[in-house]
Design brief:
Number of helices: 4
Oligomer: single chain
Strand order of the largest sheet: 1-8-3-6
Order of helices and strands: HEEEEEEEEHHH
Structural class: alpha+beta
Largest sheet: 4 strands, antiparallel
Distance between the termini: 110 Å
Radius of gyration: 33 Å
Number of strands: 8
Length: 249
């Protein structure tokens, strides 16, 4: 414990509290990215993860060209063992605790460079656009282990009571930060869904426009041919009229 004099002003205690709170930050790494996976190709990304950390990975196909919104995904540990494998899925999310579920034969508790691969080899023509979010965090000490239950506060000194209250504030702020991070992740997920739906709507809009133009052009062409045919039938001095006469029409 850090003991302080009883006459310390309250404002001078705010800075140590913020420093302690920064030191308790759970989030270690958070990154969002959009990648393009060409047809018949596989794109892999690497990130170093230490033993005891937790990997949260979420991806979503937001544009599939003229094909389906799907991609194959594989998560491999540093020695090449497959941890997660998805085949032709539009979206998914995975959570993996390093050092508890993997690394049995790799030594070092499973830490190292993990590989995140998007496989579009099953597609022959369509490039896929994939949005993903990678979060690597180290879980803090459980809240129940921070302080033992204290039934009698009479035996606590003023500094001990102060430290206990500071720890309660830190735990409360930590829970608020966790909820805010979850809300931000949900907003990012909703934005990715919106981007996928917008791309799909724009693709369908272009298809409808192209087919409409083709049908209009065909209708105009057929109408012009019919007018020309009718005029050639009734025009007795034209070349087409002599051709119809020869054909017996």
């Amino acid at each position: 414990r850090h003991h302080r004099t009883h006459g310390t002003p309250m404002w001078s205690l705010i800075l140590p509290l913020l420093l302690l709170l920064q030191g308790r930050t759970v989030r270690a790494y958070d990154r969002e990215m959009t990648v393009f996976v060409d047809a018949g190709k596989t794109e892999c990304l690497y990130h170093q993860v230490r033993p005891g950390e937790t990997i949260d990975f979420e991806y979503q196909v937001i544009d599939g060209g003229h094909g389906d919104l799907d991609i194959s995904f594989t998560l491999l540990d540093p020695i090449g063992l497959v941890i997660v494998s998805d085949y032709k899925k539009p979206e998914n999310m995975h959570r993996h605790e390093v050092g508890k579920e993997s690394g049995g034969g790799g030594g070092g508790g499973g830490g190292g460079d993990f590989r995140f691969c998007f496989d579009n080899s099953f597609s022959l023509f369509n490039r896929k656009t994939v949005f993903f979010e990678l979060i690597v965090e180290r879980e803090g000490e459980p809240e129940d282990a921070q302080w033992e239950p204290i039934d009698d506060l009479a035996g606590l000194s003023r500094d001990e009571y102060y430290d206990m209250k500071v720890q309660d504030i830190m735990d409360f702020i930590g829970r608020i930060r966790l909820q805010l991070n979850k809300a931000r992740q949900l907003q990012d997920l909703l934005r990715s869904h919106e981007a996928r739906d917008r791309n799909l709507a724009e693709t369908n809009f272009q298809k409808v426009n192209h087919w409409s133009m083709l049908q209009i052009s065909a209708m105009i062409g057929v109408g012009l041919i019919q007018v020309f045919m009718l005029r050639s039938i009734f025009a007795t001095d034209g070349r087409m009229h002599h051709l119809w006469r020869k054909l017996g029409i």
